[in-house]
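[SOLVED] Need 3D model of a two-part complex

Original post:
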Amino acid sequence: MKIIACGNPYRRDDAAALLVAERLQAFGIDVEVCSGETSDLMAVWEDADRVILIDAVMTGAPPGTIHVWDSSVPGLVSGALPSTHGLGVAEAFRLVQVLGRAPACIRVYGIEAAGFELGASPSAPVTAAAEQLAARIAGEIGAHPCA
Amino acid sequence: MTTASASRTIRVETLARVEGEGALYIKLAGEHVTDVKLSIYEPPRMFEAFLRGRHFSEVPDITARICGICPFAYQMSSVHALEAALGVTIDPAVRLLRRLFYCGEWIESHALHIYMLHAPDFLGFQDAVAMAAQHRELVERALRLKKVGNTLMVVLGGREIHPISATVGGFYKTPRKQQLTALVPELEWALEAALQTVEFTSKLEFPDFEQDYIFVALHHPQEYPLNEGRIVSSSGLDIRAAEYEEHFVESHVKHSNALHSTLRGRGSYLVGPLARFSLDYEQLPREAQQAAVAAGLKPPVKNPFRSIVVRAVELVFACAEALRLIREYEPPAASRVEVAAGPGVGHAATEAPRGLLYHRYLLDDHGLVRAAKIVPPTAQNQKRIEDDLREYAARLSGWPLADATWKCEQAVRNYDPCISCATHFLKVTIEQERP
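Solution:
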């Protein structure tokens, strides 16, 4: 089982998963922190057959909403266009499926973001949601559908 | 249906597979291009301004933040300029390690651009993921090549991007010989993969399009340029980095947040793989020259669409050079020399994957930065990209708008532009005037 948190601490709510990672690590649970860049992310989950992936998302739901997807994320697209920096989590997800390298079991937790402004601190709803999600994951690990 | 005399506009609202945010606007009247604007609307990032007042020792870690794909080039141009300002002489083993670091960055950057950003243009896919469905082996090769580059960056720099090991006078920590020799088997695979990359790219279809470029690159008598050399051009320029600002002029244009660079009295010029290959072919190692010959390349290469092949030849170079440097490496007695703060002015130019990168720093008595100037490769190529499109778009006047737009985007991607560094998304507009 590998838990992966993707995000950027300098872009407001893009730090959502990193906040979750901090709390899980405080519980003594290993978390791999990753920028979310496609090849790095693929390298991180390369040898894992079971993965929990945490990232900030935008679906139009109220900020702080916690989403859960198992094995697939319908309509997943990157916020940025693909570039040398911008190949992201969505592309990694599509690519591992095309290449047949997807983990046997993957659960994606998304925290609905309010915004990704440069240099800003995470919003209050996202900070609160990160606390809740960390507690939930810590409690669910033994009962994870992949376990 | 478009007629020869109709006027139209090619507009790409958001160009993908380039680094950063910008827009392209092309106006056509029949076969005549009446306006081309490469507009970089990403806000200026003010690095030169917020370096002011910083201690020289902080500069390399700040400049490494300018780019996520070529941070080491930014770091090194600043280190070299500051060492010039402070009269620092480095250990030869440190110089060797810096060159090896560049190889890691070139492998990572070139592999990603060739396969993930540029190859889909030639093979007719929207992106690398769509390409992977039919060309799985290409994407697998790209990912493994990038990983080789990343690993080299981690061993030398502490992490894949924004490395933290380099400093004025050397490195905070140098690797053990064994750490580097452990990379040899994967680098030997990478060299073979790079040779296959040259073969693959050489078989792509290229438009019959050549330009009379003024090439500008570093030149070193014994080495293919990475971290040092004189600045030379195909029009006879041969200067020290300290003379750069006497010959190159930056100017603001209304439609772009990145400054345009021109060669005084000559206009636009080109930096990057085509320039290096054309000016420094003799310095390429034997493997790279042989690969170039087999691919039908000989200097000068004037077709910008063939830059993908030249980039692949440079990938061969970077892998071969990395292997050579690892064989020759013996750890230095000290990882760095102590550097005393003091006044001075220093200039340096190095070769980032995308081309020549110039830095200048003015330090006060306390070693604090009083002035900084940074000229990235994409800013230097900006006007040249517009000049290419002025010629190229005219040939597309009879094409369906969607196809013409796609081809113009491809022409921009020939340059692997890093708009983020130059000041992110590129919008392209082609407008055809009505008679």
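Edit: Chain B touches chain A at residues 14-20, 68-69, 109, 112-113, 116-117, 127-129, 132-133, 136, 139-140, 143, 146-147, 150, 160-161, 416, 418, 420, 424-425 (CB under 8 Å).
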